[in-house]
């Protein structure tokens, strides 16, 4: 495998694909050096424009004329968050930080209406995503988005609500089969009183907290919620569960048990240092093994962000990228349920495959799109939504070809596809015979093969 | 035994390894037909949460009128089905079906620990999961897995929409979605796709072959469906509403030789938080008109006894009205079953008990998965226990 192939694979997994305006960098940089660039990060908040980012400035419920006006405000604000984060994914040189945040967004999946709750949890993912899992887990567990989504506001001494305790173990830390129903009941009692105040701040409501003795995973004590989280983190199974999920997301959906065991032992020994775990993965030799190349189907966010990096464009429709992702089944801030998005072949059916293969041409202005999204009554409250129409009036988007001129003269197949047969190359070359390199680029982006990374 | 080349190509054993079959060979395969019993199921999803209490109205219930002073439907406005129950006046054709013994109504259908988010509750209905269980496949999709081992993009189930619902995605097979056979045909038959599809080299990586076989099936099925849809165009004049057009498409396919057994379509939104009566009446009117033409069409073509049209919604609505002449999200709801081949007709059970509510909501008495089990077993002849993962019992209306 040559350098550019290694760098393509690395960028596809530790980020959202090669940035075509920086093709020179990939040519002259080793994958080790490139990784050190991709994994650099410093936390800066998303630059949200046009909306207040603190509760102090946030409009009061009564300042809206009616429910409809408030919904519209929520909707526009949430779209702004999604679009701002999306832009960060496309442009940030610290690609791994945003990719990791996307992973945690699917792992600690919440779906709430309040924009500040959404912004808060996304910032937790961006801030702690490459830091320490213990801190990440604690922050998420005390975030208003999670407390609200899993009903912990209703978890009270007299009426424990087990929703959070159940998902904490089943989905967030241990996986099924590593705890009992009794452990769920007991730990739910420990989380009673965990709530948030009017400004979204975590608040321990002592009056609703059950201070009694609990038996949890073989231990006995007057445990608090924090105690429960620490007891879980003491179990090597927690490190194993997280490592397995990271491996399937970043490396290969087919788990390699031996490698996962080795990684998770180190992860546990490092006291849950996520950044170190990722270094271990992306600097290993096995990450570049043939069986891990092209072994994943891109999620809609990965696919479209990758297109944005290969073929940068300006759009008059600020929601265009978001709309594509939504039509393909993965809108930011809207995971389907607490288990997060599905993966692999479940992204692909007749409709989504044809749409995926048309998006590059729609962006390039070669064709238009006219499609009706599935209604979302949680957002629209029964208001009918218009069809999503793009490019009926040409010129909704402009490709910034001048930004990628040097890249166009490179081997576009090697830059874009995990592997490509001579037959595919010949087919695409003859299909674009007499046309520009731009056309060839668009054609490659439209292949089934480009769906893989 | 000698097997002819054609038979060989059509047998399932080869098609199970279809990932390894070059696409030019696969193009010669017809969409595999399962041993169909000729029964057709149409699932009409009422999106947004239809208010069941204003659909089948408890005209003699004081609690209903007390809790809904603004939006209740008075007994002299409802179309009476019996002493206690009336149907919404905009569903006049449903009363005709009721009188003919071609409509069955199951009241108070739901599930334990109901969820009031549209999205989540719809997922529960579409995947047939428990309230705290997260499945990535839908119940019709798993029916395809069960009934159709050898076809990777079968036309046995079809959704009339631009995008495919979770209900239609199985673990192995996924149904096909199309708003209009002509539109899908046009979009799938471009020379670029056909050229990609005609590559000779077999795709050895599992994911690459999955992608290429999906493409190949889309091209082949789009052609097949389009051809079938043209063979028997409808003579009836369907309303030009979305559901009118969708039912017209379905009717033309039912009258053709296509192997489709399950059709899925949706209408909405029934999310009537304010000014409910106006919105619900509009929606019922377009449903009523379209279903009327569709049933007449099916009858004239001798198909009505083999067609079963059912309705469901992700939840019903709260018993009390809200301050905006609407209703908020609730729980249990009724399902309709329309067919010329029902065993039992009319109201299959009693109306919901309004004097015993849980925090203002109906307490379900019928589990929707028992309905699914009945449809799978008794209508489609499938193994419902494999598809739903457990024994749910059966109803006897079909």
Task: Report what the structure shows.
The complex is a heterodimer of chains A (453) and B (398). Chain A is mainly alpha-helical and 453 residues long. Chain A has four domains: 39-112, no CATH class; 150-233, no CATH class; 236-292; 300-451, no CATH class. Chain A has 22 helices and eight strands. Chain A has helices at 3-14, 23-28, 31-38, 67-91, 95-107, 115-128, 133-141, 144-149, 163-173, 181-190, 225-233, 236-250, 257-269, 274-282, 300-310, 320-328, 350-363, 377-380, 405-408, 412-416, 422-431, 437-445; strands spanning 194-196, 202-204, 214-216, 219-221, 313-315, 369-371, 388-390, 397-399. In chain A, the strands form four sheets. Chain A has a two-stranded antiparallel ribbon with strand order 1-2. Chain A has a two-stranded antiparallel ribbon with strand order 3-4. In chain A, strands 5-8 form a two-stranded antiparallel sheet. In chain A, a hairpin with a 5-residue loop joins β1 and β2. Chain A starts with a helix and ends in an 8-residue tail after the last helix. In chain A, 46% of the residues are buried. The mean pLDDT of chain A is 94. Chain B has a single domain (41-180, 225-388), classed as Alkaline Phosphatase, subunit A (3-Layer(aba) Sandwich). Chain B has helices at residues 5-10, 12-16, 23-26, 62-67, 92-100, 118-127, 139-147, 181-188, 191-197, 206-231, 242-255, 276-300, 368-379, 384-388, and strands spanning 40-47, 56-58, 79-80, 85-87, 103-110, 157-159, 176-177, 262-268, 307-313, 333-339, 346-347, 366-367. In chain B, the strands form two sheets. In chain B, strands 1, 5, 6, 7, 8, 9, 10, 11 and 12 form a nine-stranded mixed β-sheet that branches. A three-stranded antiparallel β-sheet of chain B has the order 2-4-3. In chain B, β3 (79-80) and β4 (85-87) form a beta hairpin. In chain B, α11 (242-255) packs parallel to α12. The radius of gyration of chain B is 22 Å and the shape is globular. Mean pLDDT of chain B is 90; it is low at 1-34. The interface between A and B is large, with 52 and 54 residues.
């Amino acid at each position: 495998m040559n350098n550019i192939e290694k760098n393509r694979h690395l960028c596809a997994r530790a980020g959202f694909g090669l940035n075509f305006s920086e093709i020179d960098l990939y040519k002259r940089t080793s994958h080790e050096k490139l990784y050190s660039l991709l994994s650099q990060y410093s936390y800066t908040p998303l630059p949200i424009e046009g909306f207040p980012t603190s509760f102090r400035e946030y409009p009061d419920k009564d300042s809206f004329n009616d429910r409809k006006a408030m919904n519209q405000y929520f909707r526009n604000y949430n779209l702004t968050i999604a679009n701002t984060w999306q832009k960060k994914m496309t442009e940030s040189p610290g690609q791994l930080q945003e990719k990791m945040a996307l992973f945690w967004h699917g792992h600690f999946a919440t779906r709430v209406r309040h924009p500040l709750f959404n912004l808060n949890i996304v910032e937790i993912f961006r801030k702690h995503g490459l830091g320490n899992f213990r801190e990440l887990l604690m922050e998420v567990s005390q975030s208003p988005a999670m407390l609200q989504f899993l009903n912990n506001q209703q978890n009270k001494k007299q009426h424990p609500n087990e929703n959070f305790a159940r998902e904490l173990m089943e989905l967030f830390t241990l996986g099924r089969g590593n705890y009992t129903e009794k452990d769920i009941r007991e730990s739910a009692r420990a989380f009673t009183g965990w709530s948030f105040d009017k400004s979204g701040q975590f608040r321990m409501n002592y009056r609703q907290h059950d201070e009694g003795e609990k038996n949890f995973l073989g231990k006995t004590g007057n445990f608090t919620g924090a105690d429960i989280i620490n007891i879980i983190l003491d179990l090597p199974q927690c490190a194993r569960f997280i490592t397995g999920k990271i491996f399937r997301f970043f490396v290969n959906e087919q788990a390699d048990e031996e490698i996962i065991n080795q990684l998770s032992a180190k992860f546990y020994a490092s006291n849950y240092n996520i950044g170190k775990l990722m270094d271990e993965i992306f600097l290993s030799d096995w990450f570049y093994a043939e069986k891990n190349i092209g072994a994943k189907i891109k999620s809609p966010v990965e696919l479209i962000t990758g297109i944005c990096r290969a073929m940068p464009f300006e759009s008059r429709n600020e929601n265009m990228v978001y709309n594509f992702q939504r039509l393909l089944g993965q809108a930011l801030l809207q995971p389907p349920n607490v288990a997060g998005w599905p993966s692999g072949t479940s992204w692909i059916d007749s409709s989504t495959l044809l749409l995926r293969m048309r998006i590059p041409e729609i962006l390039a202005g070669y064709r238009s799109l006219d499609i009706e999204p599935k209604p979302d009554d949680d957002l629209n409250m029964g208001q009918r939504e218009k069809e999503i129409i793009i490019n009926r009036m040409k010129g909704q988007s402009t490709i910034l070809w001048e930004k990628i001129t040097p890249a166009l003269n490179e081997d576009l197949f090697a830059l874009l596809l995990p592997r490509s047969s001579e037959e595919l190359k010949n087919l695409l070359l003859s299909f674009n015979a007499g046309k520009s390199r731009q056309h060839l680029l668009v054609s490659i982006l439209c292949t089934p093969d480009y769906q893989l990374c | 035994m000698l097997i002819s080349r054609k038979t060989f190509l059509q047998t399932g054993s080869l098609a199970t390894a279809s990932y390894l079959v070059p696409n030019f060979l696969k193009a010669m395969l017809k969409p595999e037909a399962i041993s169909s019993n000729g029964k057709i199921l149409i699932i009409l999803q009422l999106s947004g949460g239809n208010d069941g209490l204003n659909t089948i109205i408890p005209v003699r219930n004081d609690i209903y009128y007390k809790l809904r002073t603004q939006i209740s439907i008075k007994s002299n406005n409802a179309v009476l089905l019996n002493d206690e129950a009336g149907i919404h006046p905009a569903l006049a054709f449903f009363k005709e079906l009721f009188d003919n013994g071609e409509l069955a109504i199951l009241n108070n259908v739901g599930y334990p620990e109901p969820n009031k988010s549209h999205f989540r509750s719809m997922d529960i209905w579409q995947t047939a999961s428990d309230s705290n269980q997260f499945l990535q496949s839908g119940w019709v999709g798993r029916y395809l897995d069960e009934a159709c081992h050898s076809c990777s993009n079968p036309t046995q189930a079809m959704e009339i929409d631009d995008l495919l619902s979770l209900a239609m995605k199985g673990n192995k097979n996924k149904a096909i979605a199309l708003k209009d056979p002509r539109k899908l045909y046009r979009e799938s038959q471009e020379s670029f796709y056909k050229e990609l599809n005609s590559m000779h080299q077999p795709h050895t990586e599992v994911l690459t072959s999955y992608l290429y076989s999906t493409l190949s099936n889309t091209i082949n099925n789009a052609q097949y469906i389009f051809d079938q849809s043209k063979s028997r165009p409808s003579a009836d004049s369907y309303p030009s509403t979305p559901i009118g057009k969708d039912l017209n498409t379905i009717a033309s396919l039912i009258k053709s030789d296509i192997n489709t057994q399950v059709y899925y379509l949706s209408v909405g939104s029934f999310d009537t938080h304010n000014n409910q009566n106006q919105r619900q009446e509009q929606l019922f009117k377009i449903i009523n008109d379209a279903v009327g033409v569709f049933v007449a069409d099916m009858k004239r073509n001798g198909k009505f006894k083999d067609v079963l049209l059912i309705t469901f919604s992700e939840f019903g609505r709260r018993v009390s009205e809200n301050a905006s002449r609407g209703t908020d999200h609730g729980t249990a709801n009724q399902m309709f079953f329309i067919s010329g081949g029902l065993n039992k007709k009319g109201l299959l059970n009693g109306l919901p008990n309004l004097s015993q509510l849980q925090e203002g909501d109906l307490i379900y008495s019928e589990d929707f998965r028992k309905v699914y089990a009945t449809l799978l077993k008794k209508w489609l002849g499938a193994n419902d226990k494999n598809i739903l993962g457990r024994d749910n019992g059966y109803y006897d209306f079909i």
